[in-house]
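Quality-control log, excerpt.
Job 1 of 2 completed; input and output follow.
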Amino acid sequence: MSPTRYGRQGRGPEWDEGDEERYVAPHRGGAVLTLGILGLVVCFICGIIAWTMGNEDLHKMREGTMDPSGESMTSAGRICGMISVILAVVGIVILFGTGASFLHFLR
């Protein structure tokens, strides 16, 4: 992918004469959102990846080195990733908690 051309503020392709051009990386909002949804539906490891990528990308967007137009998709994917990891941890705790009490019942 080629870099996107933005003005000084990094908020759009419009700029005045004399403004310096800069190039920012394209956003990965679609990838982060896809991984977040896969984390909820398929495997929480995808959620961990979405959470990590979302944090990095949002940080880059706030610095102005990444295209900010995908901020909402990136945030949504990051939140889906967080939810998938939290649900997996809660499920593991419940699984081990009920497994231990079931084994105690058998004795």
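Job 2 of 2 completed; input and output follow.
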Amino acid sequence: MYFFQLVLAAQILYLCIMLFTIYKEARKIAADREEYFSHIWNYYEVAWLIVSVVGIAMYAMKVTFFKVVLNQLEENKGKYQKLQSCQ
């Protein structure tokens, strides 16, 4: 149980850091406008934020699909269940 709490704490910390970075970069973009994209490292920051948001969305989808499959398996306990049909 302790391991899962540690993982959850790390996920929440990562989300907080990412939200802070999004806020910071949005303020920089609003202040600098066109000059913001004249520096190559700013492209890296934006790419990192996009990849992070996509990663969090994919993780949320995985958790959701996992719960759906487990519920279907629980409902059909004792019966043969093709996992391709779990939707």
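Post-run check on job 2. DSSP finds two helices and no strands in the chain.
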